[in-house]
């Protein structure tokens, strides 16, 4: 079934010293997320490199409570890794535009809650990169330096195994066992990863694994 796809941030237009882009590589209650530099220019861009090539089904973005971009454009990059590329050249890769999301100015919550966006990705070719382009911030009295921030990003999809080149020169991959189209685990939801205590989360994941194993054992048992 689709699962969480790990990644690393390889490029950001800028960052606040205490809120570096590498914060997005991890999830958990103590994670502070990425913030753009103070009084930065717009748009800001963040590029993710997936640990393995994947077909994405969903992108989740957890916004900051008051350092909020008005709009975020989403792109997927090429399938092949550019191993000899400098990180600062990551934005020059041939990205394909997915679409955009808009974020609430959050005045209705008095800037106390964070907006979680879950974006269903239309069918696309396998990708090894994702790019986010963030536009001007919503103005509010708490955002003194006109910054934008992302607290966390989650990618859900089908991880692809190593492929072989076909007669047309294209790489063909096999899906890692799990099956396309199945629902991902609730434990992979970004809200779960960000707000559930790690020890509790580990126990829940263990119970879920045992449940899936029990179902498989029953399904494979002779009648």
Automatic annotation (TrEMBL):
Pfam families, per database record: CEP104_N (PF21038)
GO CC annotation: cilium
Occurrences of domain Centrosomal protein CEP104 N-terminal (ranges): 33-157
SUPFAM superfamilies tied to this protein: Galactose-binding domain-like
Protein name: Centrosomal protein CEP104 N-terminal domain-containing protein
Native species: Graphocephala atropunctata
């Amino acid at each position: 079934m689709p699962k969480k796809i790990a990644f690393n941030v390889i490029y950001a237009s800028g960052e606040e010293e205490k809120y570096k882009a590498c914060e997005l590589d991890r999830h958990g209650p103590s994670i502070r997320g990425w913030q753009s530099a103070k009084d930065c220019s717009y748009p800001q861009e963040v590029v993710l490199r997936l640990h393995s090539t994947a077909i994405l089904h969903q992108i989740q973005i957890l916004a900051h409570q008051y350092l909020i971009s008005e709009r975020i454009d989403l792109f997927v990059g090429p399938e092949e890794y550019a191993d000899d590329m400098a990180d600062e050249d990551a934005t020059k890769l041939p990205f394909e535009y997915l679409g955009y999301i808009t974020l609430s100015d959050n005045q209705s919550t008095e800037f106390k809650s964070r907006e979680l966006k879950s974006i269903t990705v239309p069918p696309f070719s396998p990708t090894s990169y994702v790019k986010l382009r963030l536009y001007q911030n919503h103005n509010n009295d708490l955002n003194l330096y006109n910054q934008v921030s992302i607290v966390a990003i989650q990618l859900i999809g089908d991880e692809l195994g190593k492929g072989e080149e076909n007669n047309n020169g294209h790489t063909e991959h096999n899906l890692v066992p799990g099956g396309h189209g199945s629902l991902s685990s609730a434990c992979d939801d970004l809200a779960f990863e960000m707000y559930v205590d790690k020890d509790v989360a580990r126990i829940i994941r263990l119970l879920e694994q045992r449940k899936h194993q029990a179902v498989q054992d029953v399904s494979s048992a002779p009648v």
